[in-house]
Amino acid sequence: MMHVVVLGAGRVAGHLIQSLNKAPDIQVVQVYSRKSTPLAERFPEVNFTQDLNALQTADVYLMSVTDDAIISLSEQLPFEKQLVVHTSGSTSLEAIHPKNRGGVFYPLQTFSQEKHIDFKVVPICLEATTESDAHTLETLARALSDHIYWLNSEQRLALHVAAVFVCNFVNHLYVIGADICREHQLPFELLQPLIQETAEKIMTMHPKEAQTGPALRNDRRTLEKHAQFMEGTPYHHLYQRITESIQNHVQKL
Amino acid sequence: MMHVVVLGAGRVAGHLIQSLNKAPDIQVVQVYSRKSTPLAERFPEVNFTQDLNALQTADVYLMSVTDDAIISLSEQLPFEKQLVVHTSGSTSLEAIHPKNRGGVFYPLQTFSQEKHIDFKVVPICLEATTESDAHTLETLARALSDHIYWLNSEQRLALHVAAVFVCNFVNHLYVIGADICREHQLPFELLQPLIQETAEKIMTMHPKEAQTGPALRNDRRTLEKHAQFMEGTPYHHLYQRITESIQNHVQKL
Questions:
Q1: What's the whole-model pTM score?
Q2: Which of A155, A167, B7, B34 is the most exposed place for a label (fewest CB within 10 A)?
Q3: What is the ipTM score, two decimals?
Q4: What is the pLDDT of residues A96-130, one digit of tens each?
Q5: Closest approach of chain A CAs to the CA of B203, in angstroms?
Q6: Nearest to A82 by CA among A153, A132, A152
Q7: Would you call A231 exposed, middle or buried from its count of C-beta atoms within 10 A (0-12, 13-18, 19+)?
Q8: Which of residues 202-221 of B touch A (CB under 8 A)?
Q9: What share of residues in chain B are helix, strand, coil (percent, to 5)?
Q10: Which neighbouring-strand residues pair with B126?
Q11: Among all residues of chain A, which has the CA nearest to that of B92?
C-alpha cells in the first residue's frame, strides 16, 4: 500500500484525492491545507490538518498548490530526504527545496469544480531524479491513468504553453463566439455542434489538414465583410491578428 | 416528392447530395458543375450536367458554390420565378439575382472530404421571402436535421463570424499547439484529451464560467515564463494579444 499526503486543497487536489482513493493500492492518508476546507467533509476517511508539524510519514508528498507557493511551501516542510513532488506544468523540478527529493506529477487536463474527470485518459507527465523515485511515481500515476509520459522540465514548459493555446485560449474564442451570439439574439447552442466537430476532427486528422475558412482560402470578399462587421467591437484586432497568423502559417508551408 | 437540383460539386455539395438522397421525400434529380466532377461516380443515380441550358425543372435550386460565384451564377440561370437558394453564411439573400425567388439554406458545420457528418445535429439556418418558399425550405431542412433556425441576413453574418472564431480560429490554435509539441519532441496526442475536454465543458457550462489559466488568474510569474519561452517564435505576439483579450474581458465583467 502506497501512502500519499496531499498538500493543498484546491480544485486539482479534490480531483486527485477522489481518484487516488479509488485506486486499490494507494491511500491518501492526510491532506494539509492552510485554511479549513470543504474537502474535509467530502472525504471523511482522510485526516485533514492545517499544521505542517503534524504531517504524517508517507511515500509521496503531492503538492497541489499554486505555482507561486511551491518554493515557499517546500522550504517550510519540517522533514528531509522525502519524495516531494509538485503538479505544475510551468515549474521546474528544482523549485522543490533540495532538502527533500524533488519530482513532478503533472496531470494535463482542465479541471472544473463541477465536472467529473475520467483520469484514465488524462496524460500524466512525470519527472524524478532517482530510479527509485521514478518507480514510485510511475506506480502512483498508473493507478490513475493509462497515459504516462516522462518529460524533462523544458518539455513540460513547452507542453504547458501548448496547453494554454489549445485550452485557455480556445475557451476564450468560445467566449467571443458566445458574446457575438448574445449581441445578435442567437442562442449559443447554435455553435455547439460546430465546436464539438472542430475538436473531434483532430482526433483523426492533423490540425493542419483540418484548417478551413476564409483566412486560409484568402477569400478577400468574406474577410472584408467580416472586418466591416467587427469594426468598433472589442474583438476587431484579434480577428485581424489571428487571420494574419493563419495566412503567415500557410506561406511557411 | 420534392425535386432538388444542386448547383456546385464541392465538399459541401457532396455532403448535401449524400444526405438529401437518403431522405425519403427528397430527390436530388440533377447536379450542375462547371467542370466534370468525381461526384458523378459517387452518385450514379443522379444526372450530372455542365450545361446550364440543360437544367431540369425542380422545386428548389440549391447553390453550393463559393461566395464569389453566387452573384454571377444566379444571374446566368436560364429561367426565372424559381426558388434559388444559396448555402453561404456571409452572403445576403439579395445576392441571388431577383429574376428568381431567393432564399438561404446555410448548414453550420465544418465539412471535410474525409469525415462523415451526421446532419441530424447540424443547425440549418434558413431565410426566405415568401410563406410558400419558407414552407418548402423548412421541409427540405427537416429532412436533414432536427435543428432549424430562421435567421435574417445580418444574424447569419454574425453567426458566420462567430463560427470563424470557434472553428477556424480554434483550429489554428490547435495547429500552434501541434507546432510547439513537434519542436519539443512531444507527441500531439498528449494534447488530445485536453482539447476534447475543453470542447465538452461548454456543452454544460457557459464558456465564461469554463475559463481558466494564467491570463485569467493574472498569474504574472507563469505569464513571464511563457513570454520568455515564446520569445523569437512566430506565435509570440499572438500569445500576448490573446492574453490581453482575456484580461480585458475580465475587466469588463
A1: 0.92
A2: B34
A3: 0.93
A4: 999 999 999 999 998 877 778 889 999 999 999 99
A5: 7
A6: A132
A7: exposed
A8: 202-208, 210-216, 219, 221
A9: 50, 15, 35
A10: B105, B150
A11: A225
